[in-house]
Design brief:
Growth Hormone, Chain: A; MFS; globular; transmembrane; 19 helices; cell membrane; mainly alpha
């Protein structure tokens, strides 16, 4: 039996991971500054700089997304607390090594940075998988939407405050050089932001050490002793996707593609559609991009806070998925018509205000209809399918940017997604998703392999 669920315990659990999430966002920002200001600072390195920033992003995201199916299996097999402790301590150790290399100015190879990013992407995959699969065993059902909203708030908050924290930390050596100790070069200053991430990893692990985090394996000891193999266990996870869940997953995946492309096209919209507006307001490109991205991030943060404070719908949660997506599509349409930088930023904020609401309700539905014993693998496959479309937005954005007016293209994509979302209000299978409790549909697979039912 699992211990009594407690929202208070979850809040401590959430706080520990929020610290790590903020540290990770500061780390990513600082690495970008290091690549720009240290590694490839010379104007002649422009091509290599673009490659390095792109490669670092691709390697991290690819490691995170592609590892999801295998990570989910381990999440169901092993003790989730041990997974979280291991990943946080190893992440802290790797980040402290990176800090040491930067501080001593001995980090001279892009390959080392890419290996670090790949390892960090895999560790984050384990952390997110263990974290989200534990909700249903920690949080009372009435608070699930609120808990998912808190997680979305963490993601948005980290993006909003990370640049400020990183900039502050990087500026500290200027003060310390005068009054306390001497720092040599910008690289040592940047390393302080990296150090913060390493410290938050360790603090998160220490907090987790005092918490009880249940695992399905505790109630099923056969889990650790018997396996049907990774490939068959991955198929096992896929077999839990009934038609209503597949509709839900497909809608979210398409939303990830057609809505996230807006942020990818921000620079092109500013450069080609809002350039005159920027000049008339005396703003340069960098300031305009900062305005629009900051307002968008604030919108996402506010959406997460709304879910945290009000907890979302307690029934018919599918409407908490569809209606915000419809509104996001409408706002995407209006974004393409905007000719004012501030209005564009506000509209971008409204788009991203809707996404945490959608995600929180969607996550709650999955947690309620999926057996807790297989949530690790099922949720990992779900994230893999939903997020594999995210890299495609770069391809879509590149094609749009080279062939069409970016603002008009965004409006067309908004129309397509709005129509698609509205039609889902008449999709009976999708609307019944909360009543489609998932059963063990892979029973025949298990019998063929003499599998005894333990997951």
């Amino acid at each position: 039996m699992y211990p009594q669920k407690s929202f208070k315990k979850f809040s401590i659990y959430w706080f520990s991971q929020t610290l790590s999430e903020i540290g990770g966002a500061v780390n990513i920002f600082a690495i970008t500054i290091w690549l720009t200001q240290v590694m490839y600072n010379d104007p002649s390195d422009r091509t290599m700089l673009a490659f390095a920033i792109g490669a670092n992003t691709v390697v991290y995201n690819a490691a995170y997304v592609l590892s999801q199916p295998l990570v989910g299996i381990w999440t169901d097999r092993l003790d989730r607390k041990k997974i979280l402790l291991f990943c946080n301590y190893v992440g802290g150790l790797l980040t402290l090594i990176l800090f040491f290399l930067m501080f001593t100015e001995t980090l001279k190879s892009l390959i080392i940075l890419l290996i670090y990013s790949a390892l960090l992407g895999i560790l984050r995959s384990f952390i997110i998988s263990s974290f989200t699969a534990s909700y249903i065993m920690i949080v009372p059902e009435k608070h699930l939407s609120r808990a998912n909203g808190m997680t979305q708030t963490s993601f948005s908050l980290s993006k909003v405050i990370a640049p400020t924290i990183a900039t502050f930390l990087i500026s500290i050596p200027a003060f310390m050089d005068t009054y306390i100790i001497s720092f040599q070069g910008e690289e040592q200053a940047i390393s302080l932001a990296i150090l913060l991430d390493g410290v938050t990893f360790i603090i998160s692990a220490v907090i987790l050490g005092f918490l009880y985090i249940p695992s399905p394996s505790e109630n099923n000891k056969k889990l650790r002793k018997k396996s049907i193999g990774f490939i068959k266990e991955m198929k096992s996870g896929l077999s839990y996707f009934n038609r209503p869940l597949l509709w839900l997953l497909g809608l979210i995946a398409v939303g990830n593609l057609l809505l996230s492309v807006v942020t990818t096209l921000y620079p092109l919209v500013l450069k080609y559609s809002l350039n005159g507006e920027l000049q008339s307001n005396g703003l340069d490109f960098d300031t305009g991009l900062a305005i629009i991205t900051t307002l968008s991030s604030i919108g996402g943060l506010c959406g997460g806070l709304v879910m945290t404070l009000f907890g979302g719908l307690k029934k018919n949660r599918i409407y908490g998925v569809i209606i915000p997506l419809i509104l996001a599509g409408v706002f995407e349409i209006s974004f393409g018509f905007s000719d004012n930088i501030y209005i564009s930023g506000i509209i971008g904020g409204l788009i991203f205000f809707m996404l945490p609401i959608t995600t929180a309700h969607s996550s709650t539905i999955w947690q309620l209809v999926t057996p807790k014993e297989v949530q690790g693998r099922v949720f990992s496959v779900r994230r893999f399918v939903a997020q594999i479309t995210l890299p495609l937005n770069g391809v879509l954005a590149g094609w749009i940017g080279s062939s069409f007016d970016p603002a008009k293209a965004i409006t067309i994509l908004g129309v397509i997604f709005t129509v698609l979302s509205v039609t889902q209000l008449f999709n009976r299978q999708l609307l019944s998703v909360e009543n489609s409790k998932v059963t063990n549909q892979n029973l025949s697979l298990q019998k063929r392999d003499n599998y005894d039912g333990s997951i």
